[in-house]
Automatic annotation (TrEMBL):
CDD domains: Npc2_like (cd00916). One of its GO terms (biological process) is cholesterol efflux. It comes from Callorhinchus milii. It comes from the Eukaryota. Residues 21-143 form the MD-2-related lipid-recognition domain. Coiled coil: none annotated. It is found in: Secreted. The lineage of its organism: Eukaryota, Metazoa, Chordata, Craniata, Vertebrata. This is NPC intracellular cholesterol transporter 2. GO terms for molecular function: cholesterol binding. One of its GO terms (cellular component) is extracellular region. Belongs to the NPC2 family. Its main location: secreted.
Length: 147
């Protein structure tokens, strides 16, 4: 289930080479402080085929949860397409579960860009959901897939 409404674009507030500072919106059960996609020296992030990019999201939970599950989409002309990641279990991505309320976490994962992906521009949208399917975080960034 895609929750487009909760998602915000990280276009505007870049705080360093790869880090984006974001703000909360919607009824998510978390609060993002930093989204770090690297390497991404300029915007949109150019993702080279065959390479793997590091994702590090710093967020604070606003609810407890036993589980956490990542849902990643490529959004092309507003059409969300599932974007496969090797491990969608947030509890195996730098987060010690169960997730406690009001605790700061670093979600660490990788975004592999397969060599058979088309060379297109799109948005990558990344959500992390709690037991109830609510978003701990939801962000999207513009990327360009390139050779
Ligand atoms: C989210 O985090 C920001 C910055 O850390 C803070 O100012 C804000 O109050 C937080 N919002 C909620 C709803 O916790
Ligand atoms: C993730 O980002 C946070 C905040 O910038 C940083 O303190 C932490 O060391 C990073 N973790 C990894 C594994 O890169």
């Amino acid at each position: 289930q895609l929750s487009e409404h909760c998602c915000f674009s990280l276009l505007s507030r870049r705080i360093s080479n790869s880090q984006f500072h974001s703000y909360v919106r919607g009824s998510s059960v978390g609060n993002i402080s930093i989204v770090d996609v690297s390497p991404c020296p300029s915007q949109p992030c150019v993702l080279h085929k065959g390479q793997t990019y590091k994702v590090n999201v710093t967020f604070t939970s606003k609810a407890a949860s036993q589980t956490s599950k990542a849902v990643v989409h490529g959004v092309l002309a507003k059409l969300p397409i599932p974007f496969p990641i090797p491990n969608n279990d947030g509890c195996k991505s730098g987060i010690v579960c169960p997730i406690k309320k009001d605790q700061k976490y670093n979600y660490i994962n990788a975004l592999p860009v397969k060599s058979d992906y088309p060379s297109i521009k799109l948005l990558v949208q990344w959500e992390l959901k709690d037991d109830a399917g609510q978003d701990f975080f939801c962000w999207k960034i513009p990327v360009r897939i390139s050779d």
